[in-house]
Amino acid sequence: MKRNSIPLNERIIFALDVPTAEQAIELVDRLDGQITSFKVGMQLFFASGWKVVDHIAARGGKVMLDLKLYDIPATVRLAFEQFAGRGVHLATVHGYTPVVEAALEAKTEVQVLAVTVLTSFGEQQLQELNYQGTIEDLVFERANRVIGTGCHGVVCSAQEASMLRSKITSDFLMVTPGIRPSGSDKGDQQRIATPGQAIADGADYLVIGRPIRDAENPGQMIASISKEIEMALSR
Q1: Computed from CA positions of residues 106, 74, 40, 112, in that sequence, does the dihedral angle turn out positive or negative?
Q2: 3 state SS of 93
Q3: Span 197-213, mean pLDDT?
Q4: Are the beta carbons of 159 and 89 closer than 8 angstroms?
Q5: In the chain, what are the helix, strand and coil shares in percent, each to the nearest 5?
Q6: Domain ranges across the chain
Q7: pLDDT band of 183, cuts 50, 70, 90
């Protein structure tokens, strides 16, 4: 899907970061009509298999399957082939060229997202890698390589969104976790941004979990975030 054709009601991807299928399904049903896209990560997928994904698909929703695959190319390709026909819209792999190329070789309808640098990654982790550049340098290097392979998009911090849009001229999707409305607890994320800032800087999809799930009125929070997204898009 081209960036400018993404409907407003699909811009928020709700993170189902809960341990059981029952909790996830309850959230999917409760948010019906307000959220159409959901992220299923490792914890939930390993606990429930395809149950939650199938439930979302049966309701007409879209799934971002966030397993961050990283293995030998043949294994990654075979894994991606299992996603075909399951209602998975987006799926993640680590942003290493052979892994991305293997996912693309599966030739499914699933759009491949390459994870550049995790949003929990900070200066200490950078030093442990003995990397001589900045986090922005590392994100750009990885993103530029994978987009060159034909990868559909990347997952990155919103703090790198503007830089990537200005430096990479190809049309690619950008998904940003670490989104926190003003006043929200940052949790375990280090590189965060508000919804409006992330969209204004070039993000297409915003992964948001706790700020909505823990809100006193989740519906009101979703409406507020959606309005902020709409205003950023109009600018």
Answers
A1: negative
A2: strand
A3: 94
A4: no
A5: 45, 20, 35
A6: 3-234
A7: low
Looking at domain 3-234, does it have CATH number 3.40.50.150? no
Number of H helices, E strands in the chain: 11, 8
Q: By C-alpha distance, which of 87, 92, 84 is closest to 62?
A: 87
> What share of the chain has pLDDT > 70, as a percent?
93
Give CA–CA dist 225/66, Å, rounded. Answer: 22
Whether 88 and 82 have beta carbons less than 8 Å apart is answered as no
What is the rounded CA–CA span in Å between residue 190 and residue 221? Answer: 22
Active site residues: 68
Amino acid at 197: Q
Between CA 51 and CA 119 the distance in angstroms is 28
Give residues with Cβ within 8 angstroms of 227, minimum separation 6. Answer: none
Task: Note whether 33 and 9 are within 8 A (CB).
Answer: no
**How confident is the model at residue 182, as a pLDDT?**
65
Would the pLDDT of 30 be above 80?
yes
Helix H or strand E segment including 22: helix 21-30
Quote the distance between the C-alpha of residue 194 and its chain's center.
15
At 28, the pLDDT band (50, 70, 90 cuts) reads very high
Angle separating helix axes 135-148 and 97-105, nearest 10 degrees: 30
Distance CA 223, CA 203 (A): 19
